[in-house]
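User: Here's a chain of 223 residues. Predict its fold as tokens.
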Amino acid sequence: MLNERPKKVKNYSDPTKWQLFWRIQGECWRRMVTPYLMYLFMSLLLLSVQAIIPDENSVVEIVLGVICILGGGFFNAHLLYHTGILHYDNFITGNIHRRNALYGIQSGGDHRPEREFRPWEGFYIGLLISLPVLILGIFAHYFYSVASLFFMMFAGWAIIPIAWFGTAEGGGLLVDPLWSLLFMIMPILISGVAYLVGALVEKRRKANGAAHDEKIKEAGKKK
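Assistant: Prediction complete.
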């Protein structure tokens, strides 16, 4: 027992540039999974609504469809808002560790810099969420009969609104499926803005907390 070497504690706070790059990729992919699943769930709900409602009630079909799509956007915003809060909190923690390192104090061995706030990350996560639209949209442009089922299942929120314009006699759409790529803008903007808002809210909360603590210190000195 006395001869056993102590286990080395991994230091996550000082990665190389390439390690940091790949860790950021992993973090962004991890953060896109749940929002994408929310869009997937709303797509399946949207597909069910389209199947249940008769064709003559097209207005009701479109209204309920829009509600389903907005529901996916709401969950997307909610999740990325909290991601922004979490990442900004990690950014503040990282600044403390880096400041301590300047004085020779190693205090952040378990800190993960890939989880720190970066203004562009929310938009990048949104791009990752919309990747199925990009892939299936291009594929459906050339092979719609093959891609349509997969498109409706995995990214229905982007293709079903295109189908509202009508279908051709051969079973294709009157509108080119490439127009569905415009729906990529939705998760990109929602994710990016919600992420920035979450970080801003956390920044203000930290600032207000620091100001409150300073007032308490000043009041204590006066006593």
